[in-house]
Amino acid sequence: MAYYLLVARDWVIAHPYQTALHAVNGVIFCTPAAATVPFFNTLGFTAAGPAAGRSAAAIMSWFGTVPAGGLYATVQSAAMGGFGASSAAIAAQAGAVASSSIGWLLGRGG
């Protein structure tokens, strides 16, 4: 057992950036809201609705009316923890897996 811990420690020391990438992706995979909530807030989609002066409000005013079940409504629903949240969580988890896979492949020289 001690041998494997030493091997893991040596790998972490030799590959600090890959280690950080995999650690962050692990957090996102286990708690996707850690990525989706800040992402939606940056765009202006908040739990209270579109934030004034942000991209979400500008898009909504440009559209005029937003159809139920459309992309805008689904993203706003995800930001509010509604039916779109599961889709956003799955997308974040898939992105984390893809990112770690690409990082692993590039780290191997492939």
What's the tally of helices? Answer: 6
Q: Structural class, from helix and strand content? A: mainly alpha
| Overall number of strands | 2
Unreliable spans are none
> What shape does the CA trace take?
elongated
Count of domains:
1
Order of H and E elements: HHHEEHHH
Plain-language structure description:
The mean pLDDT is 89. A hairpin with a 2-residue loop joins strand 1 (45-46) and strand 2. The chain is elongated. It has helices at residues 2-14, 16-30, 33-43, 55-63, 71-79, 84-107; strands at residues 45-46, 49-50. It starts with a helix and ends with a helix. The chain has one domain. By secondary structure, the protein is mainly alpha-helical. InterPro entries: IFI6/IFI27-like, IFI6/IFI27-like_sf. Keywords: Membrane, Transmembrane, Transmembrane helix. It holds the Pfam family Ifi-6-16.
In short:
By secondary structure, the chain is mainly alpha-helical.
